[in-house]
Amino acid sequence: MSFDLEDLRRTAPLLLLSAAGLVLLLLEAFSRVRLIGRHYHKKLPPETSEAYAVPLAGSRTYLMPLTVLFLAAALGLVVWLWPEAAEPHYLYRRMLVLDRFGLLLSGVCITAAAIGALGAPAYLREQRMEFGEYYALLLLSLAGMVMLVSAADLVSLLLGVETMSLGAYVLTGSWRRSPRSSEAAMKYFLMGAFVSAILLYGIALIYGSTGTTELAEVRAHLSEMRSAPVFYLGMFFLLAGLAFKIAAVPFHMWAPDVYEGAPTPVTGFMMAAVKTAAFGGLIRLCVGGLTSGRVPEVSTGPTGWVNVLFVLSALSMTLGNLAALRQENIKRLLAYSSIAHAGYLLVGVVALGVVGDAARAPLIYYLLGYAVTVVGAMAVVAALAMGPGQERLPIEQWAGLGQRHPAMALAMTLFLLSLGGFPPTAGFFGKFYLFRAALQNPSLLLLVLLAIVNSLVSVYYYLRIVTAMYFRTPQEEEVEGHVPAAQGALRLAVLLAALLVLGLGVWPGWAATVAEAAKLAG
Amino acid sequence: MDASFPLHLIPLLPLLGAIINLLLGRRLGKGAVALVACGSVAAAALVATRAVWVLGTEGLPSGALVDRFFQADWIFSSGDGLDLHVSAGLMLDRLSAVMVLVVTWIGLLIHIYATGYMEHDPGYHRFFGYLNLFMGAMLILVLGDSLPVTFVGWEGVGVCSYLLIGFWYAEDKNATAGRKAFIVNRVGDFGFLLGMCLLFSLIGTLKYSEIGSHMQTLRQPLWLGWPAACFIALLIFVGCTGKSAQIPLHIWLPDAMAGPTPVSALIHAATMVTAGVYVVARTHVLFDVFPTSAKMVVAGIGAATALMAATVGIVQRDFKRILAYSTVSQLGFMFVGVGTGAYAAGIFHLMTHAFFKAGLFLGAGSVMHAMGGEGDITKMGGLGKHLPVTRWTFFIYCLAIAGIFPLAGFFSKDAILAGAWAARFQLARQGFGPFSVEWVQHFTQDIYPKLIWSLLAAAALCTAFYMWRLYFVVFTGRFRGTADQEHHLHESPPEMTVPLMVLAAGSVVAGWVGVPAVMYHEGDWFGAWLAPVLPPPAQELSHSVEWGLMAVALCLSVIGIASAYLLYYGGISEAARRAAQILRPLYLLLYNKYYIDELYDVVFVRPLKRTAWFLWYVVDAFFIDKVLVQGWAWMVSMLGRAVRYLQNGEVQRYLVGVLVGTAGILWVTTTLPPRRAAAFRLSQQGRRVTLEAGGGSSRVGLVYRVDWESDGKWDEVDTRWSTLTHEYPGQGTYKILFEARDPRWGTSSTRRRVVHIE
C-alpha cells in the first residue's frame, strides 16, 4: 500500500472543492472594498450601524455564480466517479475510501449547498452583510464534509469533522452587526471545541485498546474487545461527539441558539449539509468500524452502540417535538424540528445495526429528502424578510402570506408538509421506507411506534405555520415601500428545492434505486 | 411486438397548458388563454392520432405501443416476499386507441365551444386551466398500463370534476353539488382501491399485460367457494359504479349539472363518466372468469340503471337534468354491453354516445346562453325560429339517441341489445337452497339475459319519448318565457355553432364503422378493430333473430317519438297535463327520482351526521381538546419549564448537559443490562424449579450466580446459560438469590425470590 497518483483522481471532488475555496478566498482578498460610514444605513437603528468595510455596490456579484459553477463541477465529478465506485477503492494509505455511499452523500451535501448558495446573495444584500468570505468558507466546509463521509480512518473522520465545523463556526458569526449571530458563533465554537476534545479522547482510547485507528482494522479487532471497558469508553465518547454534530438529545442544546442566530442561508446549510455529513460519519463509524457479525456484543449487546443510539433516538424525537410545539420563532421551531428529525434518522441507524444493510437505502433517501426540504424552507425564510435587518421570524408575522406572496407560501407549505411526512412529498416516502425497514425486526416496534406518534404530534406545529399563512389576516404591515428580496436566484433556489421535494415524493422509485446502489465499503 | 412511441406527450401537453393557464392565466389575457388551452389539446389530439396511426399500420393487431420514457420504477417497496414494483408506464393498444381519439377530439371541440360560452366569465383562465388539467388526467387514465397509473388519472379526473362542478362556488348550491360528487365518488374509489390491494396481494403485479398470465391463481376459490377474480372484479366494479353513476351511486351526476355546460358535456357526458366502462373492458379477464357472477351483476345493475334513469327523465323539467338522467341511462346501456360479454358493443356505444350526448349538452348550453341562463323547459318553447342551427343539430342528436336508422345510436344500441339477447351467463354448477342445478342454469342462461333485454328495450322506448318530449317542448310551439327574454333570443356565435355542426355530422356517421354483419358482410369494422384485444361475444345469433331484434328496437323508438309528438308537439298539451294528474302518485315518484336521495339521507347521511356530531362534541371537543390537548399542554409547559432551566443560553450549562449526557449513556448502558437480567422468572414443577434470566437479547456477556437456599454460598456460577433448573431435596420454604454481573464494568444487580416446595 503506497501513495498512488490514481488517488488524486479518485478524490477529485474533494480537491476541487478545496481549491475552489482557496480561489474564492483570493478573489475576495484582492477585490476593492470601501469603508462605509453611518450614512449608508439610514434605515437601521444608529447603534447597529457603525463604520465597516462593505463592498462597492454591485461589485463581486460574480462570486455566487462562480461558487455555483464550482459546485456544479464538483457534482459533475461525483457523477463521473460513480461507475468507478461500484467497487470500493481505498485511498491515501487507507485514510479515505471511494465508494458509492460516500459519493452519494457528498452529492447530497453539494446539492444542498448549491441550492443554499443560489439564495444567499439576495439575503446577504438585503441584510447588509455582504461578507465576501462567505462562499469560500462554504466550499471549505463542504470539503470537510466530503472528507467526513468518505473517511476510512478515525483520523480522517476527525479531520473531516473539524474542517466542516471550522467553516460552520465562522459562517455562523458572519453577521457581524447582529449580537445574536456573534453569540451563536461563540457558543457553537466553545461547545464544538469541547466536543472535539471528547471525540479525540475517544479516538485515543480506541487506538489505545486496539492499536489502530483504521475503521476496518478496528472491526477486525472487535473480538478481542468483547470485554475491554476502555474500548467501550472510547466508543461512547465517539458516539457522544458525533451525536453533538447531529444535534441529538442530550447533546442538542447548542442547536436552537445557533440555528436561530446564524444568518438564514447558513442555518439552511447547517441543517441540511452538516447534518447529512455528520450522519455519514456516524454510519461509517458504526457500520464500518463497530459492527461485526461474529461479535454481536459491540453492536447489539447490552453495552453496544445500538442501545445507546436507541435511547438517543427516543429522546431526540420526543423532546425535540415537545419543545417545537411551543416555539413562536420560525427558525427556532425548525431548529427543534431538526432535532426531532435527528431522532427519526437515528431510528435508521439503529435499524442498520439490527436489521443490517436493508436500512441503508431508506436512510440515505431520508437524508436526501430532509436536506432539500430544509434548505428550501430556509430559502423561503430568507426570501420573506420584513425589511433591512428585520427577518420575518415570529409566526404571527407569517399571517396572510398566502395572499401576499402566493408562490412563496405555496413552496413553504410544500416544505412543511414534507417535514410532517405528508404525501406526495419527499418526507412521506422517507418516513415510509425508513420505518418499514426498521420494522423488519420486531424489537424495534416500540421505537417505530414512538416515531409515528411523534410525527403525528409534529404535524401540529408544521400546520400552525400553514394555517397562519392561509387562514389568518395579516397583523402588521411590512416596512413601507419594502420589496422582499425574493427575486432571481433566490426564487430559483426555492423552485429547485420545491421541485426536488415534489419529485422525490411523486417519483420515489428513482431515488430509492440510486440509494439502493450506494453501497458501503467493507 | 410492442413498439415504442413517446406517448407521454399526449397527457403532458394539456397538463402543461393547465400549468400555464393556472399560474400565468390572469396576466395572459383571454385570447392567449384560449390559444394555450385549445392549442395544447389540439397538439395532444394530433400526437394521439399519429400514435393510433402507427399502432394501426405498424404494430401487430394484439400488440401495443409503450412509452420507454417512464420504464423505471415509479414506486417500489420490497419485503415480506411481495415486491411492489410500479412503473408509471403508458400503453396504447386498440382499446385505449378508441378512447384516446374520443377524448382528445371531442375534448378539442368542447374546448373551442367553451371559448365562446365562457366569454364573459371572470374566471376564464381558471376554467380553462381546470379543463386542461382534466384532459391531462383523463388521458393518463386511458393510457395507463397498470391499475395504479389508471387510478392516478381516475382520482385526477375526480378532482377536476369536483373543481368544475363547483366552478361558480359563490353559490352554495354549486359547492354542495361538487362536494356530493366528490364524496359519492370516494365511496366507489374505496372499492377500486380494495380491489387493487386484493389483486396485488394475490399475484404481486398490477400491470394489465401481466394479469392474464396469473389466471391460474385468480381462479382459486377465495371465499365461500367463489374465485378470487370475482371479488376483485366486483370491487373494481364498485369503483366504476361511482365514477360512471350507476345504481346505487348514481345520485351525484344529476346534481353535477351545476357546473358550466361545457363541463357537463365533456366530463359528465362524453368522457369521465365512461371511464368505468373502459376500466371494466380493460380488466375483462377478471370478469370473464367462470362463474361469471361478476358479469351478471354488471349487466343487471346496468339494465336496472338504464330503465330507472330513463323513467325519471320523462318527467323532469330542467333541461340539463333531463340530459343528465339520459346520460345515466345510456351508461347503463354500456354496462350491459360489457357485462354481457359484448365488450366491443359497449365500447362502440361509448364512442357514438360521446358524439350525440356532447352535442346535446352543447345544444343545451346554446339554448341556455340565448335564454340568459334559464334552464326550465316549461319556460321555453318555439325556440326553433330563433336558433336555427341549434335546433337542427339538436334534431339530429335526438334522432341519433333515439336509435333511428341510419344514425349512430341505432347501430350501437342494436349491438348492445343483440348482445344482451344472446348472452349466456355461467353460474357455479350447483343449486342454491330450494333451486336445483337445472333451474339455476335455466335462469342464468335463458331467463336472465331476456330479462335484461326487456329492461333495456323499455329503457329505449322511454329514451325516445323523453328526448323528443324535450325537443318538442323547447323548439316548437309558442314562447312561454318573459318578453324580455324573448327580446334577447339570438343564435350563438360561430365558435359555438361550428362544434355543434361537427358533432352532428359525427352523430350521423359515427355508427357506420360498426354496421352489423347481417346488413353488410364486412360492415362491423369497429368490432374487427377491437377483436384482438377484447374477446368477441361467445354466442352468435341467427340472422332472422337479429333482424327481428332490430325491427323491434326501431319500432319502439318510433312509438316513443310518435307518442311524444302527440303529447308535446307545439307545447305541453292538455292530454299530457291530464295524464300527469291521473297518474299523480307515479308522476311524483318519478319526479322525485324514486326518493333515492331522501332514502340515502335517512339511511346514511343523518346517522353519519349524528356520528359526526358525537365525534365532534364528545370525542373531539371534550376528550381530545379538553383532556388530551390541554393535558398535553400542561405537561409540555411543565417540561418546558425544566427545559428552559437548562436551555437558558448559558454555554456552561449546555456543556454540563453534554457531560451529563455522556455520563448518562455510560451509567444506563452499564447498569441497566445486569439489572434487567437479574429480574428473573421462575417456574415450578413439583420439586423442580426452573429459573430464567430476564433482559432478552441484552444478557449476552453477563456472568450469573445463583444461591438456591440463601445460605450465603453461591451454588452455581456461569457465563453462558440463561435458564437453570434445580431440584430441591425436601419440603420447605426457600429463598433464591440471583445475581447478574457485567464483568467489563463490575456492575451487578441482585434479586431475591421465595419458593414453597410441598
Describe the protein's topology.
The complex is a heterodimer of chains A (522) and B (758).
Chain A: H1 5-10, H2 12-30, E1 33-36, E2 52-55, H3 63-81, E3 89-91, E4 96-98, H4 100-126, H5 133-149, H6 154-172, H7 179-210, H8 215-220, H9 229-245, H10 254-261, H11 264-290, H12 296-300, H13 305-325, H14 330-354, H15 360-383, H16 401-404, H17 406-420, H18 426-438, H19 445-471, H20 488-506, H21 508-517
Antiparallel strand pairs in A: 1-2, 3-4
Helix pairs in contact in A: 2-3, 2-5, 3-4, 4-5, 4-11, 4-15, 4-20, 5-6, 5-11, 6-7, 6-11, 7-9, 7-10, 9-11, 9-13, 10-11, 10-14, 11-14, 11-15, 13-14, 13-19, 14-15, 14-18, 14-19, 15-17, 15-18, 15-20, 15-21, 17-19, 17-20, 18-20, 20-21
Chain B: E1 3-4, H1 9-28, H2 30-58, E2 65-66, E3 73-77, E4 84-87, E5 91-92, H3 94-117, H4 124-143, H5 147-165, H6 172-203, H7 208-211, H8 215-218, E6 221-223, E7 226-227, H9 228-243, H10 252-255, H11 261-270, H12 275-282, H13 284-287, H14 293-315, H15 319-339, H16 343-370, H17 388-402, H18 408-422, H19 437-475, H20 483-488, H21 494-509, H22 525-530, H23 543-568, H24 574-582, H25 584-591, H26 596-646, H27 651-678, E8 681-685, E9 688-692, E10 703-707, E11 716-718, E12 723-727, E13 732-742, E14 747-757
Helix pairs in contact in B: 1-2, 1-4, 2-3, 2-4, 3-4, 3-11, 3-16, 3-21, 4-5, 5-6, 5-11, 6-9, 9-12, 9-14, 11-16, 14-15, 14-19, 15-16, 15-18, 15-19, 16-17, 16-18, 16-21, 17-19, 17-21, 18-19, 18-23, 19-23, 24-25
